Prior knowledge:
It is a single chain. This protein is α+β, with helices and mostly antiparallel strands. The strands form five sheets. Strands 1, 2, 6, 7, 8, 9, 10 and 11 form an eight-stranded antiparallel β-sheet that branches. Strands 15-14-17-12-13-16 form a six-stranded antiparallel β-sheet, with helices on one face. A six-stranded parallel β-sheet has the order 21-20-19-18-22-23, with helices on both faces.
Amino acid sequence: xxxxxxxxxxxxxxxxxxxxxxxxxxxxxxxxxxxxxxxxxxxxxxxxxxxxxxxxxxxxxxxxxxxxxxxxxxxxxxxxxxxxxxxxxxxxxxxxxxxxxxxxxxxxxxxxxxxxxxxxxxxxxxxxxxxxxxxxxxxxxxxxxxxxxxxxxxxxxxxxxxxxxxxxxxxxxxxxxxxxxxxxxxxxxxxxxxxxxxxxxxxxxxxxxxxxxxxxxxxxxxxxxxxxxxxxxxxxxxxxxxxxxxxxxxxxxxxxxxxxxxxxxxxxxxxxxxxxxxxxxxxxxxxxxxxxxxxxxxxxxxxxxxxxxxxxxxxxxxxxxxxxxxxxxxxxxxxxxxxxxxxxxxxxxxxxxxxxxxxxxxxxxxxxxxxxxxxxxxxxxxxxxxxxxxxxxxxxxxxxxxxxxxxxxxxxxxxxxxxxxxxxxxxxxxxxxxxxxxxxxxxxxxxxxxxxxxxxxxxxxxxxxxxxxxxxxxxxxxxxxxxxxxxxxxxxxxxxxxxxxxxxxxxxxxxxxxxxxxxxxxxxxxxxxxxxxxxxxxxxxxxxxxxxxxxxxxxxxxxxxxxxxxxxxxxxxxxxxxxxxxxxxxxxxxxxxxxxxxxxxxxxxxxxxxxxxxxxxxxxxxxxxxxxxxxxxxxxxxxxxxxxxxxxxxxxxxxxxxxx
Length: 660
């Protein structure tokens, strides 16, 4: 009896102990899950303007969605989510530092990290003065009050970078076989991958199995990255920018492949698809670091409910098109794509299918008749064209026009010169000795040319005062907008400063526009005027701007339309004079000439493609790593194939380098 009683007591205590341990394990699991949910939490982006600038309908693969930029403000972007995302990264570092931040003992890696930090110390106070100030080697965050030393032997530069920008960062170094390898970085917000899973791999290995059939995507990206090095060596420092996108059922900001719990929010139906599915997009940048010879790859995550995308009809349309392109590319790979029908049906409710069909027509080359062909100044020729019935234009739009020249069919992108509301279309071109320009000025009334609408122009904000600074043929979009303003009776204050060499295109018309609208003020300035000129002479330089800016409202937006050097100088001068970089917008155009120097006598820094500033050195680099035809050169360097002059010169370089 006593033995039975003791046995019963033992079982009781063992049960209590087991229950207590179970409750303790349950409590720890709940605590761990709570921590996980706090860190891997739902987070939506505040910057809705991203939906306007992101590419969804330009193909599913990176090489179909890469452009070049030299604007420091576009390399790293700070916005309203800054504090929340910096705080979230700190939480992730506290929990999984060995997975979020990885470094190596390599001197080159440390040098690359310091070079990137030095770059950030230089650009952040200049481009984001509302976020950062700098006093010698101390950078202070005005949002948090924290200060950071530029050189700190106790702290790795990546630790500081992780606390001052929203972007994740990966450092790539050249290695075996000439490939670029990920050696470390800060990765808090990946999309189903992590640094531990990719560290030590090169771009070819990372992108294995991704891309269209027969193409090694990793090699294509590496080639594009190497052109950045060549461009820097030739005095043209730029970086690559692109974005990817996914429609997902997970709205968490950080999605590494090592997290313990996955997000799940029930069954998705046609009624709740707008709230249960999310658009996730990474804004990515690739930059060459010349001192260390490394490359930096940055990623910034944007996350929106599908319902937020639907509220922007243009974004909804572009995402719809993107989903169709994704289905097509998936079929090419022999895969069965996810059923996008529910998402496409949802998005299609928020834009008109007729609008999509119209825009498809607008972007398809169309023959149209010449109504007028006239030389309007010593350096400018204008064409008036019949306007297709389905064309709907807006201020700042541009057209690709294709005509027959001595070199065959050639295309140029020309800004709209007439008001978008006119029942005809006008385009103008500066005269030169290029084959296109010679053919352009010879076009006769009644002949047909081919046009298509493209979206690469300025977008004017009519709610704030507007300052337009035009050089040469850059007057074209300004003339279009001024005519539109008068036709729509818009009362926004507008200031136009128009600089040219020896004469003023459209002067009589511009004078009449100014007479009709007291809100429009126009000033002309010539650098090499004729003796009969009684107006202002010189250039739109810093002194000129300093005088004029005193009479312009502080909230005005500035729109600069000139060649690259004019745009850069004017933009720099405006910022030095106190104009916020956010209020300075540019639209560059290049002189579409062609080098007459034989390829054998050209230097590496000589331009081959004037349309996109691509040099002989960049094209030679592309050929050395595998470019065999003009399409390869275009993909690797961004060189134009629509311009006949550029196309001929690129082909000349190819023939010279690929001789049997």
